[in-house]
Amino acid sequence: MNEKIPFRVAVIEDNQNDMLLFQKAFEKERDQWEFICFCQSEDALGTFVTDYQTFDLVVADYKLPGMNGLELFKELNDRDIFLPFILLTGTGTENLAVEAIKAGTNDYVIKDSQNNYLNVLPITLRKVIRDYKDRLAYERTRRERDTISIISELFLSSGSLDDICQQVPKILADRFGFPFARITFWDQASDKIILAGATGVPDKNALPIQLPADRTVAGKVIASGKPLAELSISQRSEPQFDTYKKLGAETVVCVPMTGKRKVVGALSLADFSERRDAVSLTDTLRVIANHFAQEIEREEARQELEKAKQAAEAASKAKSEFLAMMSHEIRTPMNGVLGMTRLLLDTELPPRQREFVETIQASGESLLTIINDILDFSKIESGKMGLEKHPFELRLCIEESLELMASKASEKKIELISRIEPDVPSFISADINRLRQVLLNLVGNALKFTEEGEIFIWVRTSETGKAGTRDPGKISSAPPELLFSVRDTGIGIPEDKKRFLFQPFSQINASATRKHGGTGLGLVICSQLVKLMGGKLWAENSVGKGSTFSFTIQISPVSGMPRTYPAAASPELIKKHVLIADDNITSLQTLKLQCEQWGMIPYTASSGRAALNRIQQCQTFDIAILDIWMPEMSGLVLAEKIRQYQEYRDLPIILLNAIGDSRISLQNQNMTHLKVLRKPVRLSQLFNALTNHFGDQTASECREKPAKAPEVKTQINSQPGIRHPLRILVAEDNQINQKLTKYILKTAGYQADVVNNGTEALEKFEQQSYDVVLMDIQMPEMDGTEVTRHIRDNWPKEKQPWIIAMTADVLSGGKEKYLNQGMDDFISKPMQPEKLISALKNLRSPDIQKPSDDAPPVSDVQSPSCINLKKLFSLVHGKEDLMKDFVNTFLKDTPARVRKIDQAILAKDLEVLESQAHSLKSESAIFGATALSESCRILEHAARDRIREGLSETFVKLKKEYEQVRSALEAKLTA
After folding, report:
1. What is the pTM of this model?
2. Which residue did the predictor score with more confidence, 677 or 209?
C-alpha cells in the first residue's frame, strides 16, 4: 500500500469531545490520514450515495441522533454501497458489538471511560483497510479466473465460434451485473465493426450486424488500443455513443480484445445508471478480453487445420493401407536377419567381426521397432484395429507392466510406483493387451525424459478423479470408467510443443541431434487405442518439474474371481505396528495406505535417521519395511542399526531392493528374520511376506505350548492304484512334468500312458479308451481346451473319460473356467501329489495310508536361496537317484529353451516366446526357483498380450536368474 497517499476516512460522531480525541489519536500520522467528519448518519449517507468510491473507510458511533450507526451500515448495504465499516460502541455494550459483527461490519471498537481505545485505533483502522483491499484484489482475481475458465470450457465443448459468441455476452452480463453486453469484431479489409453477439439488445436475433468503425465505441477502442469507461453517456455528443443512448444506457465500459497477433475486436458492457466501479472493471475485463481473443485465434487456427485435414483424408487412408502392407512385407525378412545375426553371434568370431554383427543386430532391432509402430498406426488409420474384451486382474496387469520396465528404471535409479484406489474393481473386462500397450508406452516415454525421481501410476474411478462434480442423487447411465494417470519427475513439455504431442511423426525435439529416439507415433497410437476403448488421453505439464499423462477407458466390472491378495483387513495383520522407511514420499504414502487397508498401524519415516528417532522414542514395532535406496543411510545399514537395540535383535525386516541392484545378497547377510522384495514391489508378495511371518510367529507360539499328539498327514502309496486301477492318459508336452506326474502316479500304484501334445492325445484315444485324462492346458499343435471340446463333441457319453485340467495359470478364472469348458476337475502346477490323488479320489475313492517311516523329513534338505528342493525331495520320497534324474533332465533341456526364448525376443516371435516361457515357468517351479519362474511368467503374459516393450530387459534378468539356478543345481549334483 502506498503510504504517501492519505487514507480518506468518514467519521460519524455527534460528540465533539470524542471527535477531537479521535483526531488527536492520529496526530503523529496526520499526513497519512484525511478525516471527513459528520454529526448525523443522514448527512453521511447523502455523501456516500453521490461519491462513495473516494472513501477508504467508515467509522461510525452507534449512538447517533436519528439513524444509529448500525442502521446506517445496513442502509448502505441495501443501496449496494460496500465500504469497510467500523462501529464504535460504549463501554459495557459487548452484546451490541457481537450484533454488529453478525450483521457484517468489518470490526468494532469499544470505547472505554479512560479512552485507552484511542491507543489501538490507528492499528485497527489500518488492519481493516488492508484486509478490505486484499479481499477486493482476491475477488477480482477469482472473478477473472472463474470467467476465463468458463469461457475456455466453452471453447472445448461448444460446436462453433458463432455459438460461443452468443453465450459469452450473457456470461459477462451475469457475472458483472450489467444489463447489456456485446462482442464485436473488426473487419480490417472493410473497416467495419461486426456485432457478433449481444445480450439485452432487442434485435440480437438479427446478428451479425455491420457498422462503420468510426461511428461505434468499439471502433474507437480498437483504433486506440485503450479501454474506455464512460459514466455519463447522456452528456456526450459524439456519434459513437448514439447506439447506447438509444438503449437508455448511462454507463459504458469497452475494452479491446488483443490476441497474440492482432486486435480482433472488443468487449462492451453498458448499464442504465452510473456505475462507479466502471474504471476499476476495465483491468479485469481486459484480461478476460485478451484471453478470449487468444482463444478465437486458436479456434480459427483449428478450423484451418480441420479443413486441411479433411482435404488430406483420402490420401492419408491410402497411405495407411500401403504402410500396413509394406510393414508386413518388411518385417518378414527382418525376422530372418535378426535370427541369423543371433546365430552368428553364438559362433566364434574375431572381435572386429563381432562388433560388426552386434551393430547389425542393434540396427535391425531398432528398425523392427519402427516397423511395428508403423504397422499399429496403419491398422488404426485404416480402421482395422480391433479390441478383445476378457476378464483380468487390473493390479496384476499394472504390476507386470512396471516389471517389464524395472531394469531400465533401475539403471537410472528411478522409482516405479503404482497406486489403485480402493473403489476400483479388482477384476475388469477390457482389452488387457491394448491397455498394457498404452501403459508401457507412457511409462517408456516417462523413462526417456526422466533422469531422477519417480514414475507414478495412479488408478481411480472417473468419479473419484473428478471429486465434487457428481450429483449423488443422479443415476448415471454412462458405462463405468477408470482414470489412469502416469506422472513423472522429468523435464516436462515446453508449452509451445504440447500441440505436437498427439500428431503423427512429431517429437518434442525433431532435430538431427536429439537425444531421445522414436518414430513420434507412440502417443498417437496410445491416443487412438484409448479412444477405441471408449476414453480419451491428455497431458498436463509443469516445465522442469515433470508431466502427467492421463487417460480414461470404459470397463465392465467382473465379480467372483480370486484376488492375488485381500483388499480388506487380514486377521494376521490387524493392529500390527509396522515401521516404514522410504525417502520417496509417494512410495512411502502408498505403502502406508496399503498397510492401513490391511488393518495394520503404520509409522512412516522419510530417512534412516528419522526411522531411528522413532525407535529411540520407545515406539513398539512388530515388523519393519525398509527401502535400500535411501541416501545418507541405506536400508541395510538402518537394519543393522535397528538390530543393535536389545529389544529389536529379532525384529523381522523386509528390505525393498530395486531389480538389478547388487548392493545386497541374502547369502552374504548373517541377520535372521530378513526378507528381500524387489521393487517395484508386488502387493501380493508384500502381503505374503507379512502374513507368512506372522503365521510363522503364531506357529512358533503354539510350539511353546505343551505338545499334543502329532497329527499324521496322509501320504500316497501303492494301495490306491492296486485296489482301484484306472486307465490314465497324461497329455503333457514338458518332459520334466511328464516324469514327475508318472512318478507320482506310479507311487500311488497307477500306470499311465504319456503323450506330448493334443494331437497325439486324440490319436491315443482312438486306439483305446481311458478312465482319466490328465490334460495340460497349453500344448503345441492342439491345446487342452480344444482336445476336451473334441472329445465331448465326438465320443458317446458312456465312453467319455474324466478329464482333469492341469495348468500353472491359476489366475485366469480358476476351476469354474475349466468346468465351463467341459472338464471335470482342475489341479494347479507345480504338481502336488496329495491334490492329484485327491482328484483321482473324486472318481474312485482310493485308500490312502500313512507315510512310511523311511521317508526323510523335508526340513533335512538344505538348498541355496535361488532354489528350494524341499518340495521335490518330498515328492520323490527322498530318493536321491530319482531327484538327480530330474535335475539332469532340467540341466540338459533348459539351455536350448533359454536360447529359444532369446531368439524369439530378437525375432519378435511372440507365439514361440509364449510357449517356451510357459514351459520354463512350469519346470522352474518344480525346483522351487520362484524368481526364475516369475520372470518366465512375465514374459509369457507379455507375449500372450502382444506386448513387445521391455522383453529384452526381462530376459536379461531371466538369464541371470537361470545361471544362478543352474549353478545351484550343479552344486547339488556334485555334493
Report:
1. 0.45
2. 677
